[in-house]
Design a protein that fits this description.
Blueprint lengths: L10 E11 L11 E2 L1 E14 L5 E6 L4 E6 L11 H13 L7 E7 L9 H16 L6 H16 L6 H8 L4 E6 L5 E5 L5 E11 L2 H23 L11 H6 L6 H26 L2 H17 L6 H10 L5 E7 L4 E9 L3 H16 L4 E3 L8 E3 L2
Parallel strand pairs: 4-6
Antiparallel strand pairs: 1-3, 1-13, 2-7, 3-6, 4-5, 7-8, 9-11, 9-12, 10-11
Helix pairs in contact: 1-2, 1-3, 2-3, 2-4, 3-4, 5-7, 7-8, 9-10
């Protein structure tokens, strides 16, 4: 890709939203389908040149944590938010971007560890801010991919492209069907009528999340390698159907079989959900969400007791059309389709039983579907 014509500036402000995902979990890094949307919760970065050739000062406003590094020599730290920012800087430099010393502050109302992808919001907001500040001229897809690679190379999380895509390409009141192989995407209006989306944040984030994510990816790759012995034409699980998976059950290790079955069935659920949305059949969308959760719980094994408990609490409520865990797993939020007039009732009832059962307070989050990342021009 060629750079767009761009002009550098002395200061730049950029915002990038968190995201939700209606359905399509752990399919993106298998070249599958996802159905995300950007939300009103966002990350805001204010960056300015500091007159030095290579010194960077970063500040997280919420915690007043600061971090500094030298653009000529930097590498990942043990863990924490600086890796996401340094990763973006590194990837923009690899693309040929010329970056000099700058100071930046950021703040966010995207809940951390919620499954709303605060990490991608951080990456994408910095990518846009630096693109503007230094007149780098990269287009949206270059910034999306640079943000994804930042997470791969500096954080060590081999994530798919969904979170960064949703953060940049989001459109108000629309969900997006993304083909993670071709990167073709289509907007679908999200008009739920008497219903609305509700997130329930478990307020837990189990330590398995980061390590098990990469393990699941490796298990899928192992499954593809075995499947290719029988079906040499396949490149990844995107190319496999459920009949082929079932035929290979004896050849696949039991846990790998279940991982593959989840991905293949989840891809079909995403496509079925888009058809149901277009038909206004929200009951069908809700049923697919439940199916997705139980597949993530039992086949992919990335749920946790808190998430399973919240989904279970909705099963006997006819004013809840569907519910499932959202995000990488092992904590974070459930996403549900709930009758608007009964939201307060659901939150009150479920919060009470959740608190008694786990000794943890539940946080409800009513989301608004918003636009993607943007530069704030003064």
């Amino acid at each position: 890709m060629t750079k767009e014509a761009a002009t550098a500036t002395d200061a730049a402000t950029a915002q990038a939203p968190g995201r939700i995902n209606i359905i399509g979990e752990h399919t993106d890094y298998n070249d599958g389908f996802v159905l995300p949307a950007a939300i009103g919760h966002k990350m805001t970065v204010q960056a300015r040149r500091n007159g030095t050739p290579s010194t960077v000062h970063l500040t997280a406003r919420a915690t007043q944590q600061s971090f500094s590094f030298d653009l000529r020599d930097f590498s990942p730290v043990e863990k924490g938010w600086p890796n996401y920012v340094m990763g973006v800087v590194s990837e923009l430099q690899k693309l040929g971007g010329v970056i000099s010393g700058f100071d930046a502050e950021f703040e966010s109302d995207v809940p951390i560890g919620s499954g709303m992808s605060s990490s991608a919001a951080l990456e994408c907001s910095f990518a846009l801010a630096l693109n503007e500040l230094f007149g780098l001229g990269f287009d949206q897809w270059q910034l999306i991919k640079a943000s994804q690679r930042a997470e791969h190379n500096f954080v060590g999380n081999k994530c798919g492209i969904m979170d960064q895509f949703a953060g940049v390409m989001g459109k108000k009141d629309h969900v997006m069907l993304l083909d993670c192989r071709s990167l073709d995407f289509q907007y679908f209006p999200l008009e739920l009528g008497a219903y609305q989306l509700l997130l329930l944040n478990t307020n837990v984030s189990h330590s398995l999340a980061s390590s098990e994510y990469n393990t699941r990816r490796a298990e899928c790759e192992q499954g593809v390698h075995i499947l290719q012995q029988e079906y040499p034409g396949i490149a990844n699980l995107r190319d496999v159907n459920l009949k082929q998976i079932a035929a290979m059950e004896e050849q696949l290790p039991e846990h790998v079989f279940r991982r593959c079955r989840h991905v293949v069935s989840e891809n079909q659920r995403v496509l079925d959900a888009t058809k149901a949305l277009l038909a206004g059949d929200f009951n069908a969308v809700g049923e697919l969400m439940y199916q997705s959760h139980f597949s993530l719980q039992n086949d992919y094994e990335v749920s946790c007791p808190e998430l399973d408990f919240l989904v279970q609490q909705t099963l006997d409520k006819d004013y809840v059309l569907g519910s499932r865990m959202m995000g990488g797993g092992f904590g974070g939020c459930t996403i549900s389709i709930v009758e608007k007039e009964r939201v307060a009732e659901l939150v009150e009832e479920v919060s009470s039983v959740y608190s008694r059962h786990f000794g943890i307070d539940l946080t409800p989050v009513e989301v608004v579907i918003g636009d993607g990342a943007k530069v704030i021009r003064q």
